[in-house]
Amino acid sequence: MESIIERILQNKFWNFHGGIHPPEQKTLTSGKPIKQLPLPKQLILPLQQHIGRQGDLLVKVGDKVLKGQALTQSSNPMAVPVHAPTSGTISAIRKSAIAHPSGLSELCIFIDVDGDDTWKTREICEDFTKLNKQKIIQKIADAGIAGMGGAGFPTHIKVNTKPEINFLIINAAECEPYITADDLLMCEQSEAIIDGIKILEQLLNPAFILIGIEDNKPRAIKALQHATKNIEKISVCVLPTKYPTGGEKQLIKILTGKEVKSGTLPIHSGIVVQNVATCFAISDAVINDIPLIRRVVTVTGQAVSKPQNVWALLGTPVNHLLEHTGFVTEHDSSKANPPVTSPPVIMGGPLMGFSILNEFVPIVKTSNCILAPSRAEMPSAFDNNSSEVECIRCGQCADVCPSQLLPQELQWSAKAKDHQQLNKLNLFDCIDCGACAYVCPSKIPLVQYYRIAKAEIRQQQQLDLKAEKAKSRFEARKLRLEKDKNAREEKHKKAAAARKIAMSKRSADGGSASSAVAAALARVKAKKKAKSNDELSVFSIEKAESSSVLSVSSDEVTDEKSQVKAAIARAKAKRLAKKDDVSTLKVANKDSEEKEKTIKTVKTVDDKKAKIAAAVAKAKAKAKKEQQPEQSLPSSNEKEVKATSTKTDDKKARIAAAVAKAKAKAKAKKTQEKDQLAVMSNEAHAPFKSSNEESE
What we know:
Layout: H1 2-9, E1 35-36, E2 42-46, E3 56-57, E4 64-65, E5 72-73, E6 88-97, E7 105-113, H2 133-142, H3 155-158, E8 167-171, H4 181-188, H5 190-204, E9 208-214, H6 218-227, E10 234-239, H7 248-256, E11 271-275, H8 276-288, E12 294-300, E13 308-313, H9 318-323, E14 346-347, E15 354-355, E16 369-371, H10 396-400, H11 407-416, H12 419-424, H13 435-439, H14 446-504, H15 513-576, H16 581-627, H17 638-695
Parallel strand pairs: 1-13, 8-9, 8-11, 9-10, 12-16
Antiparallel strand pairs: 2-7, 3-5, 4-6, 6-7, 12-13, 14-15, 14-16
Helix pairs in contact: 4-6, 5-8, 11-14, 15-16, 15-17, 16-17
């Protein structure tokens, strides 16, 4: 490390592989101060302006916001919030075109500016040295600061490191042509930048602080040297101009001689790199409580009549910057979606920038330049038809590649969409510097192929990650269901074993539980059988009673028949004794006696019927009394007794109906026989009547 410092003090630096020396074109804007522009009518703020994830919305349509008010909050370490650059009203939250080579739309917040520029309440920190590390990191995170050199990595993660830091490198190279935003910022805000460096020193405690700046910025070099003349730990390193010296790995190589291996980060080598614009934003956030709501943007190119560095609020549409720098378009600016402009507009520099098709694209945290070249200045930008021809395998692209890649093979693999081969060729080590495309004699836009291939690989990685997560969830669910099934089976087995043990266990009287269960079942069966026998006995008694009634009735009928036969016989005898009056009178007397006997017999039969009916009623009452459940029965048997009583009552009703039917039948038969008897009596008395009439 001592040898590194000695070389730096002697202004002896290392060199990186490749690189180019394109025309700088910085004089268009380097001699003019940064201009403050009027407020635009509307701001368009994408929720995601950095590497990572977008924050969660804190506002809704119709809300009034103040300058510096947070519009989103960080729910993830890789998410940084966005803030209102000025006061106004949220008019919409919807998707809109963003600053990206793809031209895709993302969710944006639209703010209608009220023109008052009213600030939220701020807390000014007069002495940041009294703040602890966590408080400073929290201020940086709440301010929504991300790397402003182009990558956009969240700063609060980059500065929250535990390993020992050997070098804190401040990137002030700004090597790409046309861009002078950092150059003017260092000239005008050198003290604030040094305050930001001191805050980083308090957080990281590095052994050495190196400010790398190219020698084509003399005013900025003097400003930094003046601001750091009393700080021994900080060294202003003036480097030879070469593109792309401002690349992170290239700057580390030049200043320390160390190479960051593929797939690793500078922090693994004890090195942290920050951009000068990021240092200024850190100073503003920690000391003045100003979140990242503005940045310096270079508006340049020969198509602009007044090229200038301007302070641009984040979310400012590009056309607002062009209007205040003398850019004349050939389309109707009143249209919401204007056609492609002529001349074209590029966001970024000529080598790493990309064309925008919509001038309403907003300025974001990583936007440092708006380039509007003329046809003579950049003919390729006006050529809609690709002038690309077949590669001639000259090898110039490999010679100038600062990452020591093979651009030619990368292009072939990108065209073939061979992602596996692209990973083997270390595609993601490419910094999109455009040096290969700049020197290509076949006019092949190599960087465009690489960007598309990177996007496809990232998309595929996200799909693979989602598929892997889905597979993990499925396997976890399957394992959980299998575990639950095994648990249930085990529970059932234990319950069955417990029942088996309980059944085989001996009771107090020496019997087993199974025998006790069998005995209980036998008792229940016996009880049911006894109940059925009782019901049968009641039915038998009632049947016997009905049978006795029927037998009595048949005996009575038989007696009556014999009496009728006797009467007929007597009548016949009387007819045979017509001649003998005396005998006839005797017979008549006898007949009258027999008639009286018959009447007596009928009365006797009626008396017997009454007695039989009384006996039947008595038997029924007795049976009902015997079958009636006692009042002292236990409450547990009430339902059973009621059921038995109901069944008995039903059977009694059926028996009573049968008895009544038999009685009615017997009575009808008896009436018929009485009628026959009366007819026969009349016939028997007829001779006597005729004889009496004759005698008279």
